Amino acid sequence: MSSAIEVKNLQYEYHDGTKALRGISFNIAEGECVGVIGPNGAGKSTLLLHLNGILPAASKVDQSVKVMGQEITNESRGIIHQMVGLLFQNPDDQLFCPTVFEDVAFGPQQFGKSPEDINQIVFDALEHVGLAGYEHRSPHHLSGGEKQRVCLAGVLACKPKVLVLDEPTKDLDPRGKRELKSLLQSIPSTKIIASHDLELIVELCPRTIVLDKGELIADGFTVDLLRNGELMLTHGLEIPHCLRHLHPHN
Amino acid sequence: MRHDFIDRYSRIESPVHQLSTGFKVSAAIILILCTILLPIHSYGYFILISICLIGVSIISRIPAKYLLSRLIILEPFVLGVSILSLFQPKGEIIFVTILVKSSICLYTIILLTNTTPFSKILDWLKVIHIPSLFVTILALMYRYIFVLIDDAERMERARASRSFSTNKRQIWKIRAMMIGQIFIRSIERADRIYSAMRARGWK
């Protein structure tokens, strides 16, 4: 299987000199679903921003990340943005248009689709996330769960090959979480999910990467890693309840 | 939260709300231009326009109290400048004229924003080929006013819940720091929004 994302010795330093990533390497094959976990400030969000070409800034060309075999250069950035759909942590940062329709249409518009295509794409994307008929609502009148799903529709409308999600279940109630989970399961593309919601990771991702202080600590089968109590506790995590006991949980 | 404090009545039904956006916006712009450009002594015009505006407000079914309260909130910004005119010869007439003219202009805008949803105004601006960057900035501004207000409200509530001093001076000192905080947060948020825009292909 060819790799969707290839990261080789990725380093990143913020303007103030804080080292956010210290030489991270991994490969993700097409169709894989990988969880990224780690304590606050481990560098999860920074890593995700690299996968879509938002970081590093335009002036620096970095050879450490390859998407679908393609290096991220200033020329390829446009294609990379389209191939990798990024769902941000805070829906309010991502919903920047006055209506739901315009927000979902934003990506396809940037990629130069015709108005008829855009109408169809937006309709399909909203249908997919279960928000058909929301086209003319304004984002600030939506609930948290609805906002999150509009964000996802906006990302899906770009037809990405890889889906990168930063804390997708944050601020969602249990029903919202359940719906999002089954929604994500229905999307066949390669997925990378960063989250503190370890139960979500266990359910969705067969493989997990553990980050701490900008370093890659472990990379392996989710169940093996998350059952390792010592590993979890040293890196600010814990064994999720569903792996603690052997009795059935559903 | 009060998500509708700017244009609370922009989505109700009335004959005025049903008029086309293009017509309403152009009428408002022409009206404002005429009001600004006419000389001081055009009393007839001022009276006529005021009667027209009052007529439109009645047809639009927006409560008069609401419209007047908006006007009173906005008026000080204009009056602050026009007060300077009192210090010149015949200043009183100039002052009254500025007061009348600014009230007519502000009232026109208040009526426009409360009879037309903002997204429709933006659509119309795109149709008449206003540069898209300018329309985008307006759209972002409208979108994030509400987020900022929410932010400020949450902060103020958090402050109130933890401050036990009733000393006005002390409270305003903290509020001043909060304004700075909101400013810094806005800059950081702007960064994140820009990232989100780029992530979906914005150049």
Characterize the structure shown.
The complex is a heterodimer of chains A (250) and B (203). Chain A has 250 residues and is of the alpha/beta class. Chain A has a domain of 172 residues: P-loop containing nucleotide triphosphate hydrolases (Rossmann fold). Chain A is 37% helix and 24% strand. Chain A is built from 11 helices and 10 strands. In chain A, the strands form 2 sheets. Chain A has a 6-stranded mixed beta sheet, with helices on both faces. The longest helix of chain A has 14 residues. The two termini of chain A are 33 Å apart. By secondary structure, chain B is mostly helical. Chain B folds into 2 domains: 112 residues, no CATH class; 69 residues, no CATH class. Chain B is globular, with a radius of gyration of 21 Å. The two termini of chain B are 34 Å apart. The chains are: A alpha/beta (250), B mainly alpha (203).
Properties at a glance:
heterodimer, A: 250 residues, alpha/beta, Rossmann fold, 6-stranded mixed β-sheet, 10 strands, B: 203 residues, mainly alpha, 2 domains, 77% helix, globular
Give a summary of the structure in a few sentences.
By secondary structure, chain A is an alpha/beta fold.
Walk me through the topology.
The complex is a heterodimer of chains A (250) and B (203).
Chain A (H helix, E strand, L loop, with lengths): L2 E11 L5 E11 L3 E5 L6 H8 L13 E3 L2 E2 L5 H7 E4 L3 H4 L5 H11 L4 H14 L15 H13 L5 E5 L7 H12 L4 E5 L3 H7 L2 E6 L2 E7 H6 L1 H6 L6 H4 L6
Parallel strand pairs in A: 3-8, 3-9, 6-7, 7-8
Antiparallel strand pairs in A: 1-2, 1-4, 4-5, 9-10
Chain B lengths: L14 H4 L2 H17 L5 H18 L3 H19 L8 H25 L2 H10 L4 H31 L5 H32 L4
Helix pairs in contact in B: 2-5, 3-5, 4-5, 6-7, 7-8
Mean pLDDT of chain A: 89
Count of helical stretches of chain B: 8
Total beta strand runs of chain A: 10
Q: What amount of the residues of chain B lies in strands?
A: under 5%
Sheet with the most strands, sense and barrel status of chain A: 6 strands, mixed
SSE succession of chain A: EEEHEEHEHHHHEHEHEEHHH
